[in-house]
Amino acid sequence: MSREKLNIAIVGLGFGAEFIPIYKKHPYANLVAVCQRNEEKLIQLADTFGIEKRFTSYEELLKDPDIDAVHINTPIPDHGRQSIQALKAGKHVACTVPMATTLEECEQIVRLTEESGLTYMMMETVVYAREFLFMKELYESGELGKIQFLKASHQQDMDGWPNYWPGLPPMHYATHCVGPVLALNRAEAEYVSCFGSGTIREDLIPHYSSPFAVETTHIKFRNSDLSAQVYRSLFDVARQYRESFEVYGSKKSVEWPLIEGEPLVVHTAKKPEPEIPEEIESPDFAKLLPKEIQHFTTQGVYDSEEHQHLSFTQGAGHGGSHPHLVHEFVNALIEKKAPYPNARQSANITCVGILAHESALKGGELIKLPDFTLEN
């Protein structure tokens, strides 16, 4: 860590390819290695972007002493195990969502960061999307007034997605809606209650023994008068892709559009009733980034018709979040400070979803978040 720049390796080059040019342009990062099991794809991408070190084995990559940090973009079931492996190998970790699939993996990642002093960051796109950053700016300037309630959704049609996706319980992949409600004022979830609704088709149910078409969770914030509502659907619900985040304040509230591409709606208190709502296009927040990577808020690897990735096209480009995520992680390591979300915050966000599904299976029973997600 004494070098001027950090040596980064990207693991998983599907969605992960989106981050290659960002790291290459970041003023404090060297993208020195990439890892992909498919050797043909590995060579193609490494040649395209001029990356010398190429690994088909994650375990071999972790043995490289020159690599300071890994950015993991592999399938969900691998996140916890691979993050634990990297921390044990002395590498800092950035990992796409969710952090892990079990409470035990989350607990181990938190413990390893505390014992080693290494950094972990869950790369939650929504909390760095331009719409969230706009609402955060309104909140921090006082324009929203007192926050009274938060709400978020993530609805998606997962038919046709491979491997582990068929029948996945909606709340097992909930960070895109849990993340923003907790992130606005850096809150923590204390306990959850979740209800399942509807039924997915019979052939999907056995994969996870989960019947629910929709899961709706109430989150009680710790040491706060606030609660939030989040809802998720993955199969057999007619809905355009939507990652929404809404905040209700005493002075102003901001609501997400019902149709992708339409403006946000800002409601201002005490105006004549017809004048209360106003449509507002969210500004871009490239100004928060080093100039070398500012253009990546509106441009990426998967923009052209011949280069499309399902997670990117359905996610509407993730709100320009990718360079913000890279900068948050790299800057945290350079300045030796905690990124958002750090390991404990990532565990709290992830475990909301894991325990929410458990609550739904128990008819909405209140379930407390584990103590390991508490800040010291």
Keywords:
376 residues, alpha/beta, nine-stranded mixed sheet, 10 helices, globular
What does this structure look like?
By secondary structure, this protein is an alpha/beta fold. It is 28% helix and 22% strand. The protein contains 10 helices and 15 strands. It has helices spanning 20-25, 39-49, 58-62, 79-88, 103-116, 130-140, 175-183, 310-314, 322-335, 343-361; strands at 6-11, 29-35, 53-55, 69-72, 92-95, 120-122, 147-155, 189-197, 214-221, 227-233, 242-249, 252-255, 264-268, 277-280, 367-368. A 9-stranded mixed beta sheet has the order 14-13-12-11-7-10-9-8-15, with helices on one face. Strands 3-2-1-4-5-6 form a 6-stranded parallel beta sheet, sandwiched between helices. α4 packs parallel to α5, α5 runs antiparallel to α10 (343-361) and α7 (175-183) packs across α10 (343-361). The chain is globular and about 60 Å long. The model is unreliable at 303-316 (pLDDT under 50).
Morphology: globular
Largest sheet descriptor:
9 strands, mixed
Query: What is the rounded distance between the termini?
Result: 26 Å
Strand order of the largest sheet: 14-13-12-11-7-10-9-8-15
Helix and strand arrangement:
Blueprint: E1 6-11, H1 20-25, E2 29-35, H2 39-49, E3 53-55, H3 58-62, E4 69-72, H4 79-88, E5 92-95, H5 103-116, E6 120-122, H6 130-140, E7 147-155, H7 175-183, E8 189-197, E9 214-221, E10 227-233, E11 242-249, E12 252-255, E13 264-268, E14 277-280, H8 310-314, H9 322-335, H10 343-361, E15 367-368
Helix pairs in contact: 4-5, 5-10, 7-10
